[in-house]
Amino acid sequence: MLSNTLKYIYNHPLNANGKVTSLIRFVKWQLNCRLNKFPIVYGFTENSKLIMWKGLTGATGNLYCGLMEYHDMGFLLHFLREEDLFIDIGANVGAYTVLASGEIKSRTIAVEPLPDTYANLNENVSINQMWDRVETLNIGLGSAKSTLKFTKSLDTVNHVAVEGEKDVLEVDVDTLDNVLGTKSPALIKIDVEGFETEVLNGASNTLKNKELKAIIIELNGSGDRYGYDESAIHQILVDHGFNPYHYEPSTKTLTKLPLFGDNNTIYIRDIDYVSNRVQHARKIKIGSVNQYI
User: Fold this and answer.
1) 92 phi/psi in degrees, rounded to 5
2) Closest CA relative to residue 207, chosen from 175, 229, 231
3) Spatial CA neighbour of 109 closest among 129, 88, 138, 128
4) Of the four listed, 149, 160, 176, 271, which is most buried by Cβ atoms within 10 Å?
5) How many whole angstroms separate alpha carbon 78 and alpha carbon 81?
6) Beta bridge partners of 264
7) Mind listing the pLDDT tens digit of every residue in the chain (293 residues)?
8) Is the dihedral of CA 95, 285, 184, 271 positive or negative?
9) 108, 110, 180: which is closest to 138 by C-alpha?
């Protein structure tokens, strides 16, 4: 595990010109979180902050690398505008929400089912003074209004529990269509550890809305635990006019893919509109690595 983390940090694109510095940052954090029991606020981007806690992978990866999910976070930063609505499904501690509403000043609806993680999300909204732009919901999303059991001690890979899993809690669940009503998002991020099929099944009206231009969705095989075929998700999105793309923030280029990747994939509808937007995006300073994208 440690070797994988160090390899990831060393090879991250934003650490290309400061590999040794990035490893020193990792060591300093490990020492700091052992000596200091309190959360620490770090500069995330030029206009946003992120609170770091020991053991919170969803936050500390951004300290080590600037943007933990470089391509997807870079796309969000270059695509979104202040007038947009962003939906953060599986928000965790709110890294994507902070980028959208802290740096870009977009409106965000952030959905996080686990109470403790939801509390951390709200702290990040507060430290960035974003309550005028952010609505947080302590629920899960699925295909129908119901309740579901979630694991609660697996950090960023907590998920809807399957039979036999212990240390779980029951969470209220609604559909994305119900949550949005008449609201029209420009971008949605879905990171629900294999439950993406159910989220999309509850989002038929949302997918038909032409104002929705892009979806960042995690398709890494986790759907297998529920018996879902993730190639079917690809087909649903294609049928609604979306196609998978890779985004390179350093050149602001979008490259069409034949199929989804093995982690996050960006699906885009109206590629000319989206390409024009990212090409005209302003430069954004990434705090911990002191670089612009």
Assistant:
1) 55, -130
2) 175
3) 88
4) 176
5) 8
6) 218
7) 789 989 999 999 999 999 999 999 999 998 988 888 888 999 999 999 999 987 777 789 999 999 999 999 999 999 999 999 999 999 999 999 999 999 999 999 999 999 999 999 999 999 999 999 999 999 999 999 999 888 877 767 788 888 878 889 999 999 999 999 999 999 999 999 889 999 999 999 999 999 999 999 999 888 899 889 999 999 999 999 999 999 999 999 999 999 988 889 999 999 999 999 999 999 999 998 999 99
8) negative
9) 110
Give residue 129's region: left, alpha or beta (phi > 0; psi -120 to 50). Answer: left
Amino acid at residue number 144: A
Quick one: tokens of 128? 């960035």
Q: What is the pTM of this model?
A: 0.95
pLDDT the model gives residue 155 = 67
Of 91, 64, 60, nearest to 76 by C-alpha is 91
Give me the pLDDT at residue 54, please.
78
Contacts of 275 (CB under 8 A, 6+ apart): 254
Rounded distance, CA 71 to CA 73, Å?
6
Instruction: Please state, in angstroms and as integers, the Cα–Cα distance from residue 33 to each residue in 10, 43, 124, following that order.
Output: 21, 17, 18
> Distance between CA atoms of 106 and 85, rounded to whole angstroms?
6
CA distance 210 to 240: 9
CA 136 – CA 199 distance, rounded (Å): 17
CA dihedral over 211, 216, 220, 226, signed as positive or negative: negative
Polymer length in residues for the chain = 293
206 within 8 A of 180, measured Cβ to Cβ: yes
Residue 156 CA from chain centroid, whole number:
11
Closest C-alpha to 58, from 44, 78, 37, 74: 44
The token duo for 186 is: 């420009």
Identify the CA nearest to 93 among candidates 65, 69, 112: 112
